[in-house]
Amino acid sequence: MLTANAYAAPSSTGDLIPTTIERRDVGPHDVLIEIKYAGICHSDIHTVRGDWGPQQYPLAPGHEIAGVVTEIGSDVTRHKIGDRVGVGCMVNSCRDCENCRKGEEQYCLNGMTGTYGAVDRDGTITRGGYSSHVVVTEDFVVRIPDGLELDVAAPLLCAGITTYSPLRHWGAGPGKKVAVVGLGGLGHMAVKLASAMGADVTVLSQSLKKQEDGLRLGADDYYATSDPATFETLAGAFDLIINTVSAPIDISSYLQLLTLDGALVNVGAPAEPLPVNVFSLILGRRSFAGSAIGGIRETQEMLDFCAEHQLGAEVEVIPAEKINDAYERVLASDVRYRFVIDASTLG
């Protein structure tokens, strides 16, 4: 077993603390990755604090991992030592169900294995990217193109693919009007990606304090949702709305902003239910949908797209000792737009 330095939460209420964790030996199809950077996702905070259900502690989070291959198993064909690679929100799936065979492993009918806090196929509990090393089966490791620096690439493994997948699925592109609700870790990538796809992009945020950023990132318009006039002005304006907010919003009001056959897709994941007035759907043949991450094939496609268009996340790189401060700042929306841990500071 390999011992790795890490940060882990001892409970749902305690700060994350330095520790060591064990990684399995490199098997025939495994890749050992020296982690260089790990993004901090709002999902990490929800999970650590038990918002989405009870967890097993200590819990080492992190599913936005960028690093370098340092060892490969005897049967590995996809990666070689020295490759720049990434690991996102999942590290395994059944591989056999209909969805897995389609390349949609994130929707594995038998349950995909999350990068941390999940029970892997061998019965062990997975531990995430707030660590110095990770061992992952080669099928769930993606290549990071040379055009992307590892620090700005790390958040693409969650924030990037979580927004890229619905934008592609619902046809964002030239001639389509896309609104992005919230300009945070997910939202800023949704703006960059939708703009690069050729869509007309509008940011819908509580206030105008990030307006300059939104326009710089590629938005064509920016509106404050705290102003009731916004919902009158933009009624029926959008083909697609991507809601990135991990807190309750009035979904029915946002549905009114869709054109005929428009779709509002939730990628933010608040712990609370989101009630919907069904007439907001019926009277415009509108859809209210959800989307998770993409599969491995689509994640690679997203990384290649980002490299082609020179799109990386906007990051603030921090040492590991600042993780707990970063959590508080994420909750206060005091980050532009993703914290990334420098794994060399783990000790």
SSE topology sketch:
Layout: E1 2-8, E2 17-23, E3 30-39, H1 42-48, E4 65-72, E5 84-87, E6 90-92, H2 98-101, E7 113-114, E8 133-137, E9 142-143, H3 150-153, H4 159-169, E10 177-181, H5 185-196, E11 200-205, H6 211-217, E12 221-224, H7 229-233, E13 238-243, H8 251-255, E14 258-266, H9 279-282, E15 287-290, H10 296-308, E16 315-318, H11 323-331, E17 338-342
Parallel strand pairs: 10-11, 10-13, 11-12, 13-14, 14-15, 16-17
Antiparallel strand pairs: 1-2, 3-4, 3-8, 3-17, 4-5, 5-9, 6-7
What does this entry look like structurally?
This protein is α/β, with parallel strands linked by helices and about 350 residues long. The chain has 2 domains: about 1-155 and about 315-345, Medium-chain alcohol dehydrogenases, catalytic domain (Quinone Oxidoreductase, Chain A, domain 1, Alpha-Beta Complex); about 160-290, NAD(P)-binding Rossmann-like Domain (Rossmann fold, 3-Layer(aba) Sandwich), CATH 3.40.50.720. About 25% of the residues lie in helices and about 25% in strands. The chain is built from 11 helices and 17 strands. The chain has helices at about 40-50, 100, 150-155, 160-170, 185-195, 210-215, 230-235, 250-255, 280, 295-310, 325-330; strands at about 1-10, 15-25, 30-40, 65-70, 85, 90, 115, 135, 140-145, 175-180, 200-205, 220-225, 240-245, 260-265, 285-290, 315-320, 340. The strands form 4 sheets. Strands 3, 4, 5, 8, 9, 16 and 17 form a 7-stranded mixed β-sheet that branches. Strands 12-11-10-13-14-15 form a 6-stranded parallel β-sheet, with helices on one face. Strands 1-2 form a two-stranded antiparallel ribbon. Helix 4 (about 160-170) packs across helix 5. The two termini are about 20 Å apart.
